[in-house]
């Protein structure tokens, strides 16, 4: 009998997370970044975990709302952080060393983190992010396996970790969230071997391109139903115009994954 094919989750994994000044990946800036490399050891041994974290001075004020989430203030970033240009270059160089064709990069909501890093590289160095391997986005995979049911179905990292009974330590720190993303990816691969774990990572990457497109179009459809309800109640106004533009933007950006085009 042939031995079953090993899961990519049993091999080396890399995980990335960014904490930022706000939620627009093209406009806003990186505050902290973590890259976690997980390398298996022998049977029964804990894997080797290498965590590298950078604190950047983003060059702009960090809004109080962002500080309330990740705990880094403008003063701390200016006092303790390194220039953003140095940080983004080092993060990209380190990723290029550890993110390989057979070593997937795990990132929860990868379209945000990778687009943000790509935008920062273009801003400071005039070059984009080199995508040196496949991506596993636990959020995209989870939404495929458990389709979103409505506006109240929140798929935050904490909520997804709770669903799969995955430990989330030091939430809203880049290191804690990166490790949690890798743990969720491992749980998805283990619980769903045929749909996730036994796929070649490159095939899984390509499937996520299609899954993301479907998910974003469904989100746009929900927004469109909301827009139609508002128009039926009061006609078109500035708010409904913005909502209509947002629907078109969501559909347009859904065509690329894991990098989201600029406006």
Automatic annotation (TrEMBL):
GO molecular function: exonuclease activity
Keywords: Exonuclease, Hydrolase, Nuclease
CDD domains in the record: DEDDh
Keyword Heme: no
One protein family per Pfam: RNase_T
Keyword Ligase: no
Domain Exonuclease: 12-194
SUPFAM superfamilies: Ribonuclease H-like
Gene3D superfamilies: Ribonuclease H-like superfamily/Ribonuclease H
Name under which the protein is recorded: Exonuclease domain-containing protein
Organism: Saccharothrix xinjiangensis
Phylogenetic lineage: Bacteria, Bacillati, Actinomycetota, Actinomycetes, Pseudonocardiales
């Amino acid at each position: 009998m042939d031995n079953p094919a090993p899961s990519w989750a049993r091999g080396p994994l890399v995980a990335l997370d960014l904490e930022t000044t706000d939620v627009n990946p093209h406009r806003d800036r990186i505050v902290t970044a973590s890259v976690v490399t997980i390398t298996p050891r022998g049977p029964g041994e804990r894997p080797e975990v290498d965590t590298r974290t950078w604190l950047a001075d983003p060059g702009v004020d960090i809004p109080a709302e962002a500080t309330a989430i990740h705990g880094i203030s403008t003063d701390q970033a200016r006092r303790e952080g390194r220039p953003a240009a140095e940080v983004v270059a080092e993060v990209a160089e380190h990723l290029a060393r550890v993110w390989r064709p057979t070593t997937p990069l795990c990132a929860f909501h990868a379209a945000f983190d990778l687009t943000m890093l790509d935008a920062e590289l273009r801003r400071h160095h005039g070059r984009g992010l080199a995508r040196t391997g496949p991506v596993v986005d636990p959020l995209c995979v989870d939404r495929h396996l458990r389709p979103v049911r409505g506006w109240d179905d929140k798929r935050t990292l904490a909520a997804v970790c709770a669903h799969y009974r995955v430990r989330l330590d030091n939430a809203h720190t880049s290191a804690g969230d990166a490790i949690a993303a890798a743990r969720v990816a491992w749980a998805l691969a283990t619980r769903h071997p045929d749909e996730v774990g036994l796929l070649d990572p490159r095939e899984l990457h390509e499937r996520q391109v299609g899954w993301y497109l479907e998910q974003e179009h469904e989100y746009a459809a929900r927004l469109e139903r909301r827009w139609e309800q508002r128009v039926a109640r009061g006609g078109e106004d500035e708010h409904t115009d913005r909502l209509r533009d947002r629907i078109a933007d969501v559909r347009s950006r859904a065509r690329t994954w894991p990098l989201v085009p600029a406006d």
